[in-house]
Design goal:
Structural class: alpha/beta
Largest sheet: 7 strands, mixed
Number of domains: 2
Bound molecules: pyridoxal-5'-phosphate
Radius of gyration: 21 Å
Oligomer: single chain
Helix content: 25-40%
CATH superfamily of the largest domain: Type I PLP-dependent aspartate aminotransferase-like (Major domain)
Number of strands: 13
CATH class of the largest domain: Alpha Beta
CATH topology of the largest domain: Aspartate Aminotransferase, domain 2
Length: about 375
C-alpha cells in the first residue's frame, strides 16, 4: 500500500466514472465497427453537449487547439488581420492565429476576473487598425467579463471567439461560458473538466459557420463522387472511439463540477487567512468551473511554496506565463502588460483533480501553511 505522506499528488489527472460508462461506449464502437471515421458516439456526444450548453450547433474535433483553428477558419481570418488575444493564457489560445498568418495583439487582464480587461480591450479596439476578431479566455474556469466584452465587440463590429477550454460548466448569469460569442471552443484533453483523452468541441449559433467547419475540418471535400478540392482541408474530426469516452464522461459532468467546487472551498477555508494570500476571484454573477484552484501570494514567494510541495511529492505550478513574455511572440509584443505580469509573478496553481480526497487536499494545505 502507498504511504499516504509520500503518495504522489499530480496537478490533475483524468478521472473516469466509477461504473466505467466510458468503456461501454468504446465497446459499442468496436461491436458496430464504427472505429472511424464517424459513428454514433460522436453524434451522441455532440447532442449531449448541445443540450447541456443550449446551442444549436456543436462539432466534435480532435483537440481544443483544432477547434480554435476552425473557429478562425469559420470567420475567414486572412493573413494580416489583427486578432486581439488575452495575454494571460496558455499559448494554444493564440497559436491558431499564427497558423492563419494573423497578427495577435495582446490585451492585459484585470484583477477582478484575471481575464481580458474590458478597458484595455476598448482602448485596443479604438486604436488598432484592421481588427477582425477578439479571442477571450475563461482561464482556469473563471468567467471573463463576457457580457461587457460582447457588447464591445458588437459596438466595434468585430467577431468574438471564446476559449472555454478550461471552463465547461462555468456560467455568467446562468448562461454557459463559451456560448456568448460568435463561436466558442472547449477542450477534452486529459486534464480538463471532462476528457476524451484528446479532443475538443466548437460551438456556434450560426449555421453557416458550422457548415464551413464541417467542410474544412474534414479535408474540404467538394460534394462530388470523386474527390475534388477547392480549399485547403484539415483532418481534425474526433475519433468515434474517443467520443465514446466523452459520452461516458457526460454522465459525471455535474459530479465533477461539484467536486471541483468543493476542493476550491476547502483550499479557500484554510488558505485565505494566510498573510498576503488572495484566492482567485469570485462574484455572485459568475459561477466558475474551478478547473484549477489558484491563489496569489505576496508575502511568501510562490516558488518557495511550489518547491516545498515538490519536496512533499505534490505537483503545483505557477500561473500561465503571459504571452508577451513568450519568445515565440516577441515580434508581436508591445509595451508592458502589468496585470498579467503581476498575476504570473504571484500566482500558484494547486492540485485540483476530482479524484483527490479531502485528506489529500489537507495534506497539500498543511505543506502550504508550513511556508508561512
Ligand atoms: C486555455 C486553453 N486554450 C486552449 C487549449 C487547447 O486545448 P487542447 O489541449 O485540447 O488542444 C487549452 C488546453 O490545454 C487551454 O488550457
Amino acid at each position: 500500500m502507498n504511504n499516504p505522506s509520500t503518495k504522489k499528488i499530480y496537478l490533475i489527472t483524468p478521472h473516469m466514472s466509477d461504473n466505467a460508462y466510458e468503456l461501454k461506449h468504446i465497446h459499442t464502437a468496436f461491436e458496430t465497427n464504427w472505429i472511424a471515421p464517424i459513428g454514433e458516439n460522436i453524434t451522441v456526444f455532440e447532442q449531449g453537449l448541445k443540450a447541456y450548453l443550449n446551442v444549436p450547433y456543436a462539432m466534435a474535433l480532435s483537440s481544443g487547439t483544432a477547434s480554435l483553428h476552425m473557429a478562425l477558419k469559420a470567420i475567414q481570418i486572412k493573413p494580416g488581420d489583427v486578432v486581439l488575444c488575452q495575454d494571460l493564457t496558455f499559448a494554444a489560445s493564440v497559436f491558431p492565429v499564427l497558423y492563419e498568418q494573423g497578427i495577435p495583439v495582446f490585451i492585459d487582464s484585470d484583477l477582478e476576473t484575471w481575464n481580458m480587461c474590458p478597458i484595455a480591450l476598448e482602448k485596443a479596439l479604438r486604436e488598432e487598425a484592421n481588427v477582425k476578431a477578439v479571442i477571450v479566455v475563461h482561464l482556469y474556469g473563471l468567467p471573463a467579463n463576457i457580457e461587457i466584452i460582447k457588447d464591445l465587440c458588437h459596438k466595434y463590429n468585430v467577431m468574438l471567439i471564446e476559449d472555454a477550454a478550461e471552463a465547461l460548466g462555468a456560467t455568467v448569469n446562468l448562461k454557459q461560458c463559451g456560448t456568448f460569442g460568435d463561436l466558442g471552443i472547449y477542450s477534452f484533453n486529459g486534464s480538463k473538466v471532462i476528457t476524451t483523452s484528446s479532443g475538443g468541441m466548437v460551438v456556434t449559433h450560426n449555421e453557416s459557420y458550422y457548415k464551413r467547419i464541417q467542410y474544412v475540418s474534414n479535408q474540404a471535400k467538394a460534394p462530388t463522387r470523386h474527390y475534388e478540392h477547392h480549399d485547403i482541408g484539415y483532418n481534425y474530426r474526433l475519433s468515434n472511439v474517443l467520443a465514446g469516452i466523452g459520452v461516458g464522461q457526460l454522465n459525471v459532468l455535474e459530479q465533477r463540477l461539484a467536486r471541483k467546487r468543493a476542493i476550491y472551498a476547502l483550499y479557500k477555508k484554510h488558505l485565505s487567512g494566510l498573510d498576503g494570500v488572495t484566492m482567485m476571484p469570485e462574484n455572485i454573477h459568475m459561477n466558475p468551473s474551478y478547473w484549477l484552484s489558484c491563489f496569489l501570494t505576496t508575502k511568501v514567494n510562490p516558488l518557495t511554496i511550489i518547491e516545498a510541495l515538490e519536496t512533499n511529492h505534490i505537483e503545483a505550478r505557477p500561473l500561465w506565463k503571459p504571452m508577451h513574455q513568450q519568445p515565440i511572440f516577441k515580434d508581436f509584443t508591445q509595451g508592458p502588460l502589468k496585470n498579467s505580469a503581476y498575476l504570473y509573478e504571484h500566482g500558484v496553481c494547486l492540485p485540483s483533480g476530482t479524484a483527490l480526497t479531502d485528506d489529500d487536499i489537507m495534506r497539500i494545505i498543511h505543506v502550504i501553511q508550513g511556508c508561512f
